[in-house]
Amino acid sequence: MPRFRPLPVLTVFTLASLVLLVTLGGWQMQRMAWKSDLITAYEARGAAVSFREAICSPAEGVFSPPVAGPVPLTGQTLRLYTLRDTAGWMRLALMRAPACAAGEPVRYLLVEVAFEDWATGERTPVQNWRVETPPTAGLFTPGNDPDTNAWYSHDAETMATALGVDPTALLDVWARADNGMPLSLSQTPPAKHLGYALTWYGLALALIGVYLALHASRGRLRLSKPSQDGDKDKKAE
Predict the structure, then answer these.
(1) Count of alpha carbons within 13 Å of 177, Cβ hemisphere only?
(2) pLDDT digits (tens, 9 = 90+) for 22-39
(3) What is the pLDDT of residues 95-144, one digit of tens each?
(4) Does the predicted TM-score (pTM) go above 0.70?
């Protein structure tokens, strides 16, 4: 009959570590399923539409269909920091949004018109867009600096003021460059998250093996009852 006398401190540490490793593995499995759904949604978003169709008849999915110009722009541009193949600025301008119904008030759409490379200052104009809800600021996102035209997150009210329009006239969606599948999906596809999950689960199994081996080496884990001769020898010692 197996005999097991666990070391208290080591057991508590091992259990806590196992909970952490299994939780991380489960989180990566959730990320894998989430990204698979996003990729499916991106690939099924349909054919190109006009700005009017994208704004007045928004798609139900996460991604809008690709949108083609022309883009009638007004006023100055804002610089919004982004990471693509390299660090740089999105150049954002205002476009008067097409009316969806007769007599509605003037509205504006924030549109990315170019990508400006941080190192070289070279600008690449945008030819295609997708219309979506702007991302929210992250925990470590720097604060915006309107005085130097340096923006790191969307702030509709402050951005509208900087561009000289009434904040209530700015649509709650924006048009960003559509350069193919987002890097967050293409650079870290679902298969990578599966690999990460298997790594965490593998570490959990390895930890269990080390835990059991340590107890076995100290005589605290036995799969069978020791022989009577073994007991006599132990008592003699």
Answers:
(1) 21
(2) 999 999 999 999 999 999
(3) 988 888 888 899 999 999 999 998 898 999 898 899 988 888 888 889 99
(4) yes
